[in-house]
Amino acid sequence: MQAIEKKPVKDVFGLDDPAFAKTQVKVFASTVDTPAIVDGFKFTVENLRRMMVWAAAASLPDNFFKANMKKNLMIFGPTGCGKTELVKQFAARTGRPLFRMQCSEDTDQAQLFGSWKLCRPIAKEEPGEDAGILEKGIQGIAKAIEKLAISIKRNTGVGPEMTFVDGPVLRWARTPNAILVLDESDQLLPTVSMSLNCVLDGDDIVVPETGERIKIAPGALVAATANTNGRGSAGGNGGSASLYKGTKRQNIASMDRYFVINTTYLPEEEEKQLLINQIGLPDVAATAMAKLAGKVRSLFLGLNEDAGANGEPLEFTITTRNLLNWGMSYRLFNVTGMDSKIAFTEALKMTLLDFGSAAERKAVLDLWETIVADS
Ligand SMILES: Nc1ncnc2c1ncn2[C@@H]1O[C@H](COP(=O)(O)OP(=O)(O)O)[C@@H](O)[C@H]1O
Ligand SMILES: [Mg+2]
């Protein structure tokens, strides 16, 4: 499937920068798997440049280079800074289908690649909320019988009809110009990550259950997101990254197969623009809010990365997600007639501050008071 058109970067990503004067972007016909465009999503020049090189790697003419270029991109950075959305918006704007795998330490090959399912399942998907204990019990037994039937069928060929249902990796591999997103990929057990290495190398995928050999479709790309660089660091001086529970140190051979973007929250000025454009806040409010987010983050990121074994990390940050939600809940409190000053603190508490410890709440509210007094 060829690109249907080539367009200037400005038209596709809304970024007008001389860095892209010579760049044209391939745009494909959207499919049902292409994410929806979020209007006003902000790309940065640095990130977009690297993404363009990554995407180009998948559609170079034959023999452009003699060596094989990697087509995988790891985006790592703190929570809520827009890593997943960055990939989704890249796909949305370029019309690419996107297949997302939410990774956890329980993710296994069957979830990634696919597994056998009965054509007509014995058990219902999930018993309803109001199901009685008897119905739940029967469902549990049916599920166990189903598992047993699948295992007998696999081992002896005898039993009910089954179909092999593709997981996200196979659906991606069959779709031209698609992006596979391994979201929160540093949660994967290193052995599971390693099982993806042949996929990252672009090799044919042989499905052991069916014997099918799948050639990865042309134009296919892989993106992974993570909070750490796969070596227990959140990208600073190599501290503990201890807040990101469940992240695993990855095998260096896995990381070696990725290009990398170490990203972080947008600069204060850009976030201020988001608050103005996406939420309709006045300039003075947006300025103060973006400033608070910046200050809290510098404490969070600075302390955590250097906390090491004995440090006390500040467990509290303001993500872009929450900065926007603070603004939106403020607006809603405000339209109900709440005093503006109270609405700001109430909205901040409701969005995230009430998750904080007493000391954290006080520190952040004090900081907010100072910023408001200065503005
Ligand atoms: N650059 C950006 N422009 C606009 N909105 C953003 C941007 N980055 C993040 N956001 C907002 O923050 C939300 C969370 O981003 P997400 O991609 O889920 O974060 P992460 O994957 O890094 O945890 C997004 O849905 C979006 O509303
Ligand atoms: Mg994410």
UniProtKB/TrEMBL annotation:
Gene3D superfamilies, A to Z: P-loop containing nucleotide triphosphate hydrolases
A GO term for molecular function: ATP hydrolysis activity
InterPro entries assigned: AAA+_ATPase (IPR003593), ATPase_dyneun-rel_AAA (IPR011704), CbbQ/NirQ/NorQ/GpvN (IPR050764), P-loop_NTPase (IPR027417)
Signal peptide: none
SMART domains, per the entry: AAA
Stretches assigned to the AAA+ ATPase domain: 69-256
Protein name: AAA family ATPase
Species name: Noviherbaspirillum pedocola
